[in-house]
Design a protein that fits this description.
- It is a single chain.
- By secondary structure, the chain is mainly α.
- The radius of gyration is 17 Å and the shape is elongated.
- It is built from 4 helices and no strands.
Length: about 110
């Protein structure tokens, strides 16, 4: 499998996780993910990792969410392509898909966002 094909299969894995996130947001919050605000996720309370006023931040909106989604897809595709270029005989479509899926999984490697 060449590196470009592996990168696109990795992007498909990342797109699967993005679709799961959209489905979970609509199911849990009854809103599209770009309309979810911090105060709708959990009740506002003081936590040591939250700065004062951070719980009142506005929702990111669809342009910000789309930019973040494209960056996450790039993060799922680029390392998958690099892995396939480094080890061309050991990367098959299933491995490329799983690597792309795992790179943006929320509880997995937590690469960005």
């Amino acid at each position: 499998m060449d590196w470009l094909t592996a990168a696109w299969v990795g992007v498909a894995g990342g797109a699967t996780m993005e679709a799961v996130d959209v489905i979970k947001s609509v199911k849990w919050h009854r809103k599209m993910p770009w309309n979810v605000q911090p105060d709708t996720i959990e009740p506002p309370r003081r936590r040591p990792d939250v700065r004062p006023g951070e719980e009142q931040l506005p929702a990111p909106g669809w342009p910000g969410y789309c930019v973040a989604a494209v960056l996450r897809l790039f993060v799922s595709g680029a390392p998958t392509g690099a892995l396939a270029a480094t080890y061309p005989h050991s990367v098959n479509p299933l491995v490329a898909y799983m690597v792309g899926l795992a790179l943006i999984h929320r509880r997995g490697l937590k690469v960005i966002f």
